[in-house]
Amino acid sequence: MLEYLPSTPAVIAVRCGGSLTRPEIEGFMDRLEAALAQHERTHFFVEIVDFGGLEMEGLGDLMKRSATWFRNLDRVGRVAVVADQGWIRWAAKLESALLPHVAYETFEPAERDRAWAWVQGELKHPHAPALKVIDTDRPDALAFEIDGHIDRTEMEAITAHFLRAAEGLDKVRMLGRIRRLGGLDSSGLVSGDFFAMKRSFLEHLDRYAIVGGPVWIRTTLYALAPLLRVEIRHFEAEDEAAAWAWIGAKPVSERPMFD
Prior knowledge:
This protein is an alpha/beta fold. It is 39% helix and 34% strand. The chain has two domains: 2-119, Transcription Regulator spoIIAA (2-Layer Sandwich), CATH 3.30.750; 131-256, STAS domain (Transcription Regulator spoIIAA), CATH 3.30.750.24. The strands form two sheets. A six-stranded mixed beta sheet has the order 10-9-8-7-6-11, sandwiched between helices. A five-stranded mixed beta sheet has the order 1-2-3-4-5, sandwiched between helices. Helix 6 (152-166) runs parallel beside helix 8 (192-202).
């Protein structure tokens, strides 16, 4: 099932559910081709609920028509994919990595309203700020909180913030609290400038406490510790007080990385 949602002319908005038939996909391709021809920028909002797959008949011909998308990437603006199934969000993130010059973002159902507002151009940032700076009672103890999806701007900003904070200090200690990790902007991870800032900060880092987060975070950190030459420990969320004691500092206040 493919349902078209009311939107401005330069936005194609659809809701997908169940299985998609060939006529539905062909109809979407008709709209896509017409919009790309008519507008300087065409934006896309795609909401996927209980997706059941594609009708395979004639799929080869439809794939040929999809070349229109790739030929006109310079005319594609914001793309928001809202999906209730994790594998679809993962696949969309993979596609977004292959289209680095397209503003392509994935969202969970709870973020639908924000995704819609972003595609319509009503919001500058696709996701709510995910990073907070935690001020501590000593200058050589730095801390932050992650709660949501981290984009490239936030990654670069917080790294630059901590680089400035570490200026003039021989060594610093850090605590990272992870409430919810909604993903990372892959374009930020391949930025040479970001890697340079990260490497420069690691030269100052002596002790690193991570509080909470998924299991793979703990596994990855312990695997990297010998390479980074940093003493790293993971603490469960309920053991945060022990993490603060381990870095020898206390939290004083918290503020978002961006207003």
